[in-house]
Specification:
The protein is mostly helical.
Length: 127
């Protein structure tokens, strides 16, 4: 098999597997957080969780597709590993940035929801 095609296949298999794994971990562990953000509404939390997973897949797999073109020498085993490590490393960085971005957004949403619930509780106590 052509070394370039073999490198493409390895890159796609590794990148897609990493993306699926990270999405599953974030989805399963993020549910409890979303239930808290949405004041115990599990159906809404599950719905938002699924939408976030779809967006996560679209962004990350889109990046993987755009970054597919080989930009280096893969005619040697060393060149293949160097290209793969650079490409997979970039995918990992994108996954990490997406994760941190999601955490930032959710912490802000959670903080806002907590303030809103506290204000409602204070208003109800004063009424």
């Amino acid at each position: 098999m052509d070394p370039v095609v073999l490198t493409y296949v390895a890159y796609l298999v590794i990148s897609v597997a990493l993306t699926v794994w990270v999405a599953r971990v974030l989805s399963s562990n993020g549910r409890a957080f979303l239930v808290d953000v949405f004041a115990g509404d599990g159906d809404l939390a599950d719905s938002v969780n699924r939408l976030l997973v779809v967006g996560f897949y679209l962004i990350n797999l889109g990046y993987v597709s755009l970054a597919l073109k080989i930009g280096g020498d893969v005619m040697t085993l060393q060149g293949t590993f160097e290209v793969l490590s650079r490409k997979v490393g970039l995918v990992l960085l994108v996954l990490g940035v997406m994760h941190l971005f999601n955490l930032l957004i959710f912490s802000r949403v959670r903080r806002s929801a907590s303030k809103s619930r506290a204000a409602k509780t204070a208003n109800a106590a004063n009424a």
